[in-house]
Write a structure and sequence with these properties.
By secondary structure, the protein is an alpha/beta fold. It has helices at 2-33, 87-93, 111-128, 146-156, 159-162, 184-197, 207-210, 215-220, 223-226, 245-260, 275-280, 288-302, and strands at residues 41-45, 53-57, 65-71, 97-101, 134-144, 171-177, 236-241, 265-270. Mean pLDDT is 90; it is low at 1-31.
Length: 303
């Protein structure tokens, strides 16, 4: 009985230690997700809904600086504009005004409403960012995960920005980070085929349900569908995790379609990383994806 008690007590201590480590890991992850510098102007309202707010990070005495417009991820059903990590600090140090936006989420609104929210926010930036030291004619758009799909779509499908009075000519570049839905039909077919051939049930809340059940809408929500010639689509840097086959193929497919449309595009696969780390490390010195982004941004602003 004594040995059993000792064993039980040891197991309890080990479990408590593990829980403590997990809690610390969660805290570290949360800390890593927050901005490293405070917003110079927070919770600026761009519309009349609760999530119609954005944050602005600007250098002291900013005037006529290029602008980065950032769209957070979260599967179109979560996430927040404060999920920016090192990016505001990195871009501000390079002489940018950095803007991070919120938008309404599934299932409270449909997918098109999300697209329109993002475009509305960018419309506000185009009209008002000069008051915060930004140049409304030099805007770069980026986003991670679901935000990558949103960034890519509004930079190739001009209907949404046109509705907000934003011409493509002000977009100087787009850098989506590890999206898997530049081609929505392809990711749905890939995911469902993988499950079907292994005799596994279909997902209860996968891409098909998020994007609706209409194949025509799946195509319409895909950036690859709208990447055509003569629209003034900006240059693209498509960052992705090299070890993830689905995201790799999505990035390479999008790159190919953009190039066919005469758009300057490069897909860069980051090695020895994952979906979250690729995003979190943007701004870290000597990070390969950050180096690619730095070169891309410099090239965009030279044109």
């Amino acid at each position: 009985r004594r040995m059993k008690a000792i064993s039980t007590r040891a197991s309890f201590i080990a479990l408590a230690s593990l829980c403590s480590q997990l809690a610390l890991g969660d805290a570290s992850a949360a800390a890593a997700d927050t901005p490293t510098i405070p917003a110079t102007t927070a919770n600026v309202r761009y519309g009349d809904q609760e999530r119609h707010v954005l944050d602005i990070y600007a250098p002291a005495k900013a005037k006529n600086l290029p602008v980065v417009f950032w769209i957070h991820g979260g599967g179109w059903q979560g996430g927040d504009k404060t999920s920016v990590q090192l990016k505001p600090e990195w871009f501000v140090a390079k002489g940018f005004v950095f803007v991070s936006t919120n938008y309404r989420l599934l299932p409270n609104v449909d997918m098109v409403t999300i697209f329109r929210d993002v475009a509305k926010s960018l419309g506000w930036v185009h009209k008002n960012i000069a008051q915060h030291g930004g140049d409304p004619t030099r805007i770069l758009v980026g986003g991670h995960s679901a935000g990558a799909q949103l960034a890519a779509l509004i930079c190739v499908d001009d209907r949404y920005l046109k509705a907000e009075g934003v011409p493509f000519s002000v977009l100087k570049g787009c850098f989506p980070v590890d999206g898997d839905t530049y081609d929505v039909p392809a990711i749905i077919e890939t995911a469902e085929t993988r499950l079907r051939v292994h005799g596994l049930p279909m997902p209860k809340y996968g891409h098909r349900l998020k994007f609706g059940n209409d194949p025509a809408l799946h195509r319409d929500y895909s950036a690859v569908t709208h990447a055509t010639k003569g629209k003034g689509i900006p240059p693209f840097l498509i960052l992705y995790v090299a070890d993830h086959p689905d995201n790799t193929m999505q990035a390479r497919r999008f790159e190919a379609v953009l190039k066919e449309a005469g758009v300057a595009a490069k897909a860069f696969g980051a090695k020895e990383t994952n979906h979250n780390k690729l995003n979190e490390k943007l701004g870290v010195p000597d990070d390969p994806a950050t180096t690619e982004l730095s070169d891309f941004v410099a090239a965009c602003l030279k044109k």
